[in-house]
Design a protein that fits this description.
Layout: E1 3-9, H1 14-27, E2 31-37, H2 51-68, E3 73-84, E4 87-97, E5 102-106, E6 110-111, H3 114-121, H4 126-134, H5 144-149, H6 156-167, H7 169-172, H8 174-177
Parallel strand pairs: 1-2, 1-3
Antiparallel strand pairs: 3-4, 4-5, 4-6
Helix pairs in contact: 1-6
């Protein structure tokens, strides 16, 4: 009988839950992964701007889940955007924690058209900007801006999977990371 590993994701977005379940299944192949999404407040605007605001949103979601739910692992993914010196981009921060450790990871950047970023500065959410530009409905719970802007060669989920996979390193090698 496989041991069950309980994972709480600080969101009910199926893309985020599926990404977490996929990564924990890779790291714990001999366990049954029970991955549940919970509404967890980010404490930041719905559309975070800047790396700090985005990271803090993911951290806040994990801390909330740790305070309100019992699990083996807690994780959250927060998408944000920033105006870098080389252009506007969107990215995500991921946070993973258990009772002993806390790890922060970040996805790669997806370049954004300047008018899209300007719409975010004006108070819009990226999902809504994408839905308007590409005539889609609720793209943020599907392939996201990533899917649309890469012609579906990458997706929101594939980006979360990569960031979560990398952020799991401290849990695979706790003696190296806890010195």
């Amino acid at each position: 009988m496989k041991q069950t590993l309980r994972v709480i994701v600080g969101s009910k977005n199926p893309v985020k839950i599926n990404a977490a379940k996929h990564v924990f299944s890779l790291y714990f192949p001999h366990h049954t992964i029970e991955c549940k999404g919970e509404d967890a407040p980010s404490g930041v605007p719905d559309q975070p701007l800047g790396e700090d605001e985005t990271r803090i949103g993911a951290e806040n979601r994990v801390k909330y889940c740790q305070d309100h739910f019992d699990a083996d692992f807690y994780t959250a993914m927060e998408g944000g955007a920033e105006q870098f010196s080389y252009g506007a981009a969107t990215f995500a921060f991921v946070v993973i924690a258990n009772k002993q450790q806390f790890s922060v990871g970040r996805s790669s950047n997806l370049p954004l058209p300047q008018p899209f970023y300007d719409a975010l500065l004006a108070g819009k959410e990226l999902g809504d900007v994408m839905d308007e530009a590409f005539n889609t409905v609720n793209i943020k719970q599907q392939g996201g801006a990533i899917g649309l802007l890469t012609n579906h060669l990458a997706t929101r989920e594939s980006t979360y999977v990569q960031a979560l996979t990398l952020a799991m390193a401290p849990f695979s090698h706790p003696t190296l990371f806890n010195q």
